Amino acid sequence: MPKFFVNNENIIKNKIIIKKDYNHIKNVLRKQIGDNIQICNEDDSKTYNCKISNIREDTIECDIKNEILTNTESSLKVTIFQGLPKSEKMETVIQKSIELGIYEITPVEMKNSVVKLNEKDKQKKIQRWQKIAEVAAKQCGRNIIPKINNICSIEDICEKIDSYNSVIVAYENEENYSIKDEIEKLKRQNNKVKDIAVVIGPEGGFDIKEIDNLKKAGANIVTLGKRILRTETVSIAITSILMYELGDFN
Fold it and tell me: What is the arithmetic mean of pLDDT over 134-159?
């Protein structure tokens, strides 16, 4: 069943008013009065079974039939710090990471990023990426729309490291400490792990100074194995591992 997002202001007693998805519901899905849809409140993550009761010129009115108790969100909050890749690769990272359950994504300007954006282009990209995030969240039945944060720097990440239980940096030149080693360490913390950040390099990889700065700030530099993964593959691989070991199945 199609799922859509609204805010508190769109919910009045037992009715929900839909505005931003009006065109998609009416003209793409061709929904009619009497059809059922699911609506999630972004402000509290509550999800409702609803029936379309009226289709006006620019809004759709729905009657709430009942609240649905859903369990689509993990207790583990994973934040992806993604080194800026080419546009289509960033879209892949957003789509697949959200399907796997990440909490938010922050693009990062790094020395070896192929993509260089001016301030005007940055805002346009963030807006586009946020729309992609919303579509992905709807598609996979999430109860939240993960936020795409403003583009930051390695220095910004270093300042935020203490906000997470662990900041994991996937680095192709690390040989001794593995993602498995870090997960085993986190498991010994007796389920106190709630927030993990993952830092992923761009197509050109990390500059050694970036790795040194992250390590000095307290990040954990890990290897993902014997093979070098593409930047858009890393987020899929590491998020899957984290959700399996520490999130969805625990």
Answer: 93
Domain identity same for 16 and 61: yes
What tokens were used for 228? Answer: 């070098």
Phi and psi, residue 99, nearest 5°: -60, -35
61 shares its domain with 89? no
Same domain, 30 and 116: no
pTM of structure: 0.87
Could you report the per-residue pLDDT of 82-104, keeping only the tens digit for each? 999 887 899 999 999 999 999 99
Contact 248, 242 (CB under 8 A): no
User: Are the C-beta atoms of residues 18 and 6 closer than 8 Å to each other?
Assistant: yes
* DSSP type of residue 169: E
Determine contact, residues 168/179, Cβ cutoff 8 Å.
yes
Total structural domains within the chain = 2
Tell me which residue range forms the domain holding 230: 77-246
Residues 50-79 pLDDT 10s: 999 999 888 999 999 999 887 788 889 999
Residues β-bridged to residue 169: 199, 221
Phi, psi of 239 (to 5 degrees): -65, -40
Q: Are 50 and 63 in contact (CB under 8 A)?
A: yes
Judgement on whether residues 140 and 229 belong to the same structural domain of the protein: yes
pLDDT at 250 over 70: no
d(CA 109, CA 112): 9
Percent of the chain with pLDDT over 70: 98
| 3-class secondary structure, 5 | strand
Give percent above pLDDT 90 in the chain. 65
How many Cβ atoms sit within 10 Å of the Cβ of residue 212? 12
